């Protein structure tokens, strides 16, 4: 487990693993990738830092130290999240450090979470929970079902595709929105972003899976909500930065939006002083939609596949981030 980086200094190649990666995965890596010392990040000493070549899972404190080291040999970071805005991508590009994300492992749990938020309103589950806390039997609650509803999903990547498939059993019409207009299975139709304003008024449920980019900042603003169908259900499971929250609150108060389910908000954790907490028709899920006890079981095969390629070529393919685009 030694290598020469081109000078006289002989160092070990270390694969540093974040503390919450399961032990069985660490053990498997140790058995299969003998060219690396596989160690949990918290077990490494300062003298080990220059030898770290790969990070499986992001340890922020260690990562920041490595990026400041003049003799660092860090070559690749496998992030645990789909979004990678927490990384200084310009710096990674400058240092020629590869970055890969966890895209492709969130579809199932996020689809279930989004359905849960919708049902919390349409089936009055949220209100029933509130009523139970005060022992109130309120039978005459307005309910509806999904059958016949027009649903639009902004974002047709892996999560959007799994969500569309999940929704297909409910006799709904699902429209996807993307940049290219490319079709995908389980969507009844696909429209381009520029076509959306002319069609917004037909949708009963609007689901955002938008990433965080300069183009999506405050995408859901006053002009946007002027175009939606009155009483629309709005779900945001993409990025909190896409929503002008003051405008959303106003839309919820005036009936433009009948219900909003928010898995993400602009500032997390959401401050206790935020007006979002006070809105009776807003449900806040504390960024849990992508969480599951199966998370790292789904990420590990992606990481192993890339690691095998990285050993051979020094490059990766699956979920590789284009550091000039941010995704």
UniProtKB/TrEMBL annotation:
This is Hydroxyacid dehydrogenase. One of its GO terms (molecular function) is oxidoreductase activity, acting on the CH-OH group of donors, NAD or NADP as acceptor. Residues 19-311 form the D-isomer specific 2-hydroxyacid dehydrogenase catalytic domain. Residues 115-289 form the D-isomer specific 2-hydroxyacid dehydrogenase NAD-binding domain. SUPFAM superfamilies: Formate/glycerate dehydrogenase catalytic domain-like (SSF52283), NAD(P)-binding Rossmann-fold domains (SSF51735). Keywords: NAD, Oxidoreductase. Belongs to the D-isomer specific 2-hydroxyacid dehydrogenase family. Pfam families: 2-Hacid_dh (PF00389), 2-Hacid_dh_C (PF02826).
